[in-house]
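Two quick folds needed for the group meeting slides. Do the first one here.
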Amino acid sequence: MTDLVTHIRSNLSDDRELVFVRDDGTPTRLTFTELDRRARATAVWLTEHGLTDRPVPLLYPAGLEFTVAFLGCLYARVPAIPAPLPDAGAPHSNRVRALMRDAGARLVLTDAAHASTLSGISARVVGPCADPDGWTPPALAAGTVAYLQYTSGSTSEPRGVEVSHGNLLHNLGLFRALTRGRPVRRLAGWLPHYHDMGLVGLQLQALHAGADLVFMSPAAFVARPVRWLELIGRYAADWTVSPDFGYAWCTRRITDEQLTGLNLATLTMALSGAEPIRAGTLADFERRFAPAGFRPTMWNPGYGLAECTLMVTCTPQGQGATVRTFAAAALERHEAVPEPGGVPLVACGPVSGLDLQIMETDGSGPVPDGGIGEIWVAGPSVALGYRGRPEETLAAFHAGDGRWLRTGDLGFLLDGQLYVTGRIKDVVIVNGRNLYPQDLEEAALRANPTAGRSTAFGLRRPDGGEHVILIQEVRRGHSAALGETADRVMDLVTKEFGIPLSLLLVPRGAVRQTTSGKLRRRHMRELFLGGGLTPLHAELEPAVSALLGAGSAHPLRPAEAPSHPWSGHVRL
């Protein structure tokens, strides 16, 4: 078997269904048999319109219509492009137009409710008259492109990763291997279908495993996170997946009253990935939801990326999370030295089904276990490349002897487990020390637990060194309260890391994220330098003020950005 379509159709049954729970709590259902019938009709329509092998963006709200359209594209050998609906105020967004140009798409598919507002980008609704019995299975092979997963743009312009049928079958097989012979029966989640974790880890995983899927919209989860955990209990789900944010959001927002009605005892796997996994998030969630039946053995931390379809490593079922602590000074030298009471890191599971090595960041050679370097991956899950970008594909997907994917992520192997420490481009080097922005951001959160998101990045000084900028969201308040908040954050971060620091306090929502929830650190750096941020309060180190330019029109010119009184506690 070389294609996903044949595998999915082998699971057809009215005993299995997809359930989408609307924001008002009303469930809508679709059996696998009906899903197949509607997908075949969609495939006939696509073929009649001459779209075979032509990419088609899918701009759908959360729900079952996207799943039908995506499967119809697979059935018609049409590379689908899962993408978020543009904001209501910008129906013809630049991102969608750029995506269509990059992929060579001539139209998009959407639902009837959004067709008129998207008419300017050739939006179409699949016609109701296509005959599913007129479907003829296309010629599909392991190397046939199944869909394009556009990267979220956290570090660069979005690029379309070409994922093949063979890539999908292999990666979904890695998920099945995690169960250790106890296949998934029912998945529950809220992740968006245009995110690789939501598409592969939820929707396609259910179709591949022949399992039920119950899901809801991301907006409904964010507005009332208890809904996700209620789905798990109501439908007796045994699998769920989420980034670290989802588990942390539940811990913070679910009330004691809501907790009493939850039942998580049916879970066997709670996957966490897609962003840095914080040991504190896991521990807090365990404590909070133990009364609802959550057990530490349910955790399955993992690591993956779209360029490897989704999963690279993941903790197998029943093993639980491995958290170890490491010497902070050694991590700054790109070495992992276990130390009691040190920096806690969560293991992302063993390597299985793929080849993985840790390489020097310049690609000169491998590093030993415990050495931090770039994560390289090889194997059948590694995607074909970036659509229409041969040079970038060669550099990223054909490193070393030609078969290695350079992930751009930093990590190390220890005792057979992978630990991920950050992105190469995000690391800030201060006085020869390698600092990871997520560590600075986590320290800022500890200093101000009621704050929103934060982001940290480095600015190059004239002497070649870097200075750290931290941007922290806060609620609007009086200037005195903002000053006290700034002092708490500055004191804790500078004491903990021993570095000079410049701080901006900004309103909630000012720290930008990608569509999948990752911090856009490089974009925030550009906004900072370009004067695109209006802070509520700023504490700038003199060298940064000089970089911004004295007397310029920049909103943070020195006259409006007093320096922090260091009080002698900063060790340079």
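Then this one, please, same format:
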Amino acid sequence: MDVFAIRPASLHPAERVAEYRARGWWTDETINDLLQRQVEQQPDRLAIVDPPDKPDLLGTAANRWTWAELDSAVDRVAAALLRQGIRPGDLVGVQLPNSTELAVSYLALLRVGAVMSPLPVQYREYEIEMLARLTEFTAFITAGRIGDRDSAASVVTALASVPSVRRLFAFGGNLPNDVASLDVSAADSLDRADVARHLECFQANPNDCVTVCWTSGTESTPKAVPRSHYDWLAISWATIDGPELTSDDVILNPFPMVNMASIAGTLLPWLRLGATYVLHHPFTLPTFLRQIAEERVTYTLAPPAVLTMLLQSERLLAQADLTSLRAIASGSAPLAPWMVRGWQEDHGISVVNLFGSNEGICLLSAPADFADPEIRAQYFPRYGSAGERWAGRTSEQISLRLTDLVTGEDITEPGRPGELRIKGPMVFAGYLKGTTETSPFDEQGYLCTGDVFEIAGERGQYLHHVGRSKDLIIRGGMNIAPTEIESLLESHPDVAEAAVIGFPDAVLGQRMCAFVAPRTGCVLDADSLLEHLRGLNIASFKLPERFAFVRVLPRNPLGKIVKSPLRDMLDADDPSPAPHGI
């Protein structure tokens, strides 16, 4: 099964579980076991550090906790959830910035056996209500406020008409009457007793669904990606082995803990290794650099645009103390070879090239495999290529195919583009029904990624990313489905039709332009369309930076809109940004 009719307790079929357990790729281990191991082995060691600007963001104190203090806070929240009726299998939406409250929410829900669905803090009422209805959230956790937004009050409004939602929770003060208060103070004896009593009856199965993340793809409805302990823990080995992380590392996470990059890239390595976890939110470069210096950070993640900008700014680098930093992971957009070489040769910092997805794509170009930084920037390992060995245990677990985009036949020769298809213990089991009816797997059980690669290298040992097979827009690391924005624009009474495309941007990776055709006799302008979109309470990163007005949209002989002529019309020298905030 690869599209689930209901929220499942166990995700992967029995034959897959038996195969991967026999190979040693999956074990009895759960994510909560990782936490418990660190609490037992090093209770007094520093575990997690809040962002320094958290008091301004959430109105709660910034914490620096040992593993024992973290575990106590987890029991505190788990006990509160249990008393309010949260039970194993309940799907709980969570909208919090990177903070100890978010980390504790993850771990407390895991301890209870509930399923967490993390949402970006940019999401507003429109997205929250839509996702809650799609998967029937049982409860929701947020904060009284996030920045200048009354988050708890917004969630009450968004979820008032969603019948599945039974409980609302929030951290912080000044909460609406129907929102239960949570806090991350130390657990008392009653909290500990309530959790212990629950765990006497509940034992997690590593095949249990533990998270439901979201991927926009190019469809108007986001797709729900359920994952289990099995596949999360399998993919975490790649993000440990590639940058060669150890328990001595200090990991700084500036990426929102809502998807693969942050969860597999930082959260799970931290728990498995017992390293120190430093959180950052919202992204501000001065704070980011200050945390690296003050916390003696050894490893972090950063978008390519930030790494490029830093390398080009002698003033910023002269003021920054990066002497503790030995490696940075980057991805989501192609890495410039000169940039990767510059960090390595001028600063002694290795840039690790990552290519991943919520569904389980996991390609990683590590310094151990790619000593030449320019090769590392451009290519990924072609796992399974004859005569090649790659660092990291997941290289022996991943099976890859490239298939012709027209015929579907396997590609084995260099220079011919094909869709990447992948199989292994890190790949998810399938989408939740209601968010898509389309299977993401081919007849051989490989995940069809939608990403186009070519075989490269003198021995055919590399993969080179060519692009997406669809029109997904990735703006500042956030996926935007053009179809969704098009349908929202077409809900304006004066709009006949709309087509949305992305165009390159040096900082965000891509920006968005909406081509709009008005109804006969109507006149449109950018301000009125922006006001219409804002009135729908959508996330601000989905607002187009440009609008172009046309009489009709170009179509092929079958009547389908074709976007290539629209791309040709874009004038990249005049981005005409729409004024909107984050």
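Slide caption for protein two: The two ends are 39 Å apart (CA to CA).
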